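Submission checklist for the structure archive. All mandatory fields must be present; incomplete records are returned to the submitter.

[x] Identifier: SWIM-type domain-containing protein
[x] Organism: Centaurea solstitialis
[x] Residue count: 511
[x] Sequence attached
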Amino acid sequence: MATAQFLSTHITEQVKMDPNMPLKAIQSHLSEKFEIHVSQSKAMRAKHMANKKIWGDFESQYHQLRDYLNEVKRCNPDTTVKLEVEIEPNLQVETRKFKRVYICLGSLKKGFRAGKRDLLGLDGTFMKGPFPGQILTAVGVDSNHGIYPVAYAIVEAETTNSWKWFLECLGDDLDLQANSNFTFVSDRQKGIIPAIAQMFPSAEHRFCLRHIQENMKLQWKGQAYKDLLWECAAAYTVPQFKTAMEKLKRFNAGCHDWLMKIPLQHWSRAHFTGRCKCDVLLNNMCEVFNKQIVDARDKPIYSCLEYIRVYLMKRIVNVCKVIESKDGPLTPTAQGILDKAKTEASKLHVLFNGEHRYQVSGPMNDQCIVDVRAKTCTCRQWELTGIPCKHAVAANWNMGVNGINVVPEAWVDISYRLTTWKEMYSFKIEPINGRLLWDKTNCPSILLPPKHHKQVGRPKKKGRKAEMKQKQVGTSAKLSRKGKTVTCDKCKHPGHNSRTCKGQGGPSNKT
């Protein structure tokens, strides 16, 4: 009588407190409690039933999805919720199949605008449940270089069409136009590049350098190639970039030519614009957020969405506690970067031209021109990051010697101010009621889950490796030997190998 259904009622609380509870621990707990042997398969079924009681049924939650979205929108003013269903040719049918859902909470929308930084990372991660789907996310960077999620969606797949739909919804929420000077960071997924090019042709699109490196590793492995790639990408000026590329060319001309086929404005700092005041080369903001919501991906539809919303609500509270303990004009990260520049500025020599330009020189032919009126330096670090570089700090100190007292902190971009950081997190996500208190929507149709296509083999739990993602222009590496002809080592004739060689190619050429 110790069925999996019976045993599941006795482990529900344990599974709720520890969703990653191992099967061996469940077996041990039930064996000690009932003094019986519990097989691994029965423990697995019991855990699955317990999870179903905790998080709900995968199919039935689609029926209640409209009620959940309505509750989220009711409790959080200015929230954008968009639900799209599959086209049904027969209008008399009372059911509709789920296709996509998009959520941008009102507080996150306001907080991102308050951050005054036009930068978003875009990425997608797959759902682990019985129904197919991808979670698309848009994550920004706050004043302390932390992540700031803005919007998320569940779509059928990472295609150009789904990304265009997501970007269209995002553009409406953030007031982005086709000519907006915005900056996106992505991992070069095959659907996102044409989507950004079509929706925001004037936007700057940066490619995550780690994914470029992973593609490079298919042909050129080793720490030396990694270091040379980063040296090229991290150069702030075009002359420095050309010097690094020449160094790579001398090391391996083939790798140099492969890298040059990727448009430079997508991965080289020397070719970035300074519009977003951020010099990031990686899409780490999305990677960090995806790691936080990994436990949401194997849950039913609105339990998944609710898991993400609860995480975002708790994160705002946690960051606010950190903000309350800080003081000063700048955020801790920005202050640390500026303090490092101050340390290096003490070794520099400054010459004033009598107006608003300074010649700042140091060791190893380090000499730049600082324009304090335009707030630029020819090293381009100030322009790209929004934080004064060591040359600008040295010029600032020279101004003090000449009677012009301006602290370097006053030259830091407003997006790094502590007041900006506080304002970003001043908008709170409101809690919602439980399912029993939700208002019923008046929609006449019943929402059904998408069509389930069961894949052959064991379900995958891990994401695709970076090198398995779509190769873009300039990547010639192949992962498959399909279509290639082997050559026999014995007779040197094609069509077979040495193990199956029976002399069909003639006598061996070996002596």
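[x] Structure attached
Curator remark: Residues 206 and 266 are 4 Å apart (CA to CA). Residues 301-324 form the longest helix (24 residues).
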